[in-house]
Design goal:
mainly alpha; Four Helix Bundle (Hemerythrin (Met), subunit A); 5 helices
């Protein structure tokens, strides 16, 4: 009984300390940059705060469509290779060299996709005026609307918590 009351007291103390620490932390400063929310296709450049001309909107939309046309088959291949690697990993009879070869194929496709993305980001950057570029949040990258990569270990039956 005494041990239980000691544990409860320690837990209460930790909770109170945690509350005080969180109250003492400063809030983040307000962002003076425009509120850039992505639309359903992942294109936050469509925000009205950029004041894009119709020609700029059309140029960016054309770039996005061209990027999607090139990136979609690569992403599909990448997805298939990752599934195949997961399957190979579950088979104890598969030789390590086969696994490494599969990983090299995945890495090559990821590099190709990153290069393609950078190529189109550079093209998209040239569409913005200097003033529009200055209004972009620091570290913002022009997204082409295919969504974000889901790491291989975050999908499937295993979670990160079980791996740790």
């Amino acid at each position: 009984m005494r041990r239980l009351s000691l544990i409860v007291t320690i837990l209460i103390a930790l909770i109170l300390i945690n509350i005080k620490v969180s109250e003492a932390q400063r809030t983040f400063p307000s962002n003076t940059k425009p509120n850039l929310r992505m639309d359903s296709q992942g294109a936050c450049w469509k925000s009205s705060s950029f004041a894009l001309t119709e020609a700029q909107k059309k140029a960016l939309e054309t770039l996005r469509h061209a990027y999607m046309a090139e990136a979609t088959p690569i992403r599909a291949s990448l997805f298939a290779l990752k599934i195949e690697l997961r399957h190979l990993l579950s088979d104890p009879n598969v030789q390590p060299q086969i696994l490494f070869d599969q990983q090299r194929k995945i890495s090559a496709l990821q590099a190709k996709l990153q290069d393609l993305s950078l190529t189109y980001q550079i093209k998209a950057r040239s569409v913005f005026t200097r003033e529009q570029s200055e209004r972009l949040p620091h570290g913002w990258a022009f997204e082409m609307g295919l969504g974000y990569e889901i790491p291989m270990m975050d999908t499937g039956r295993r979670s990160k918590k079980k791996l740790e």
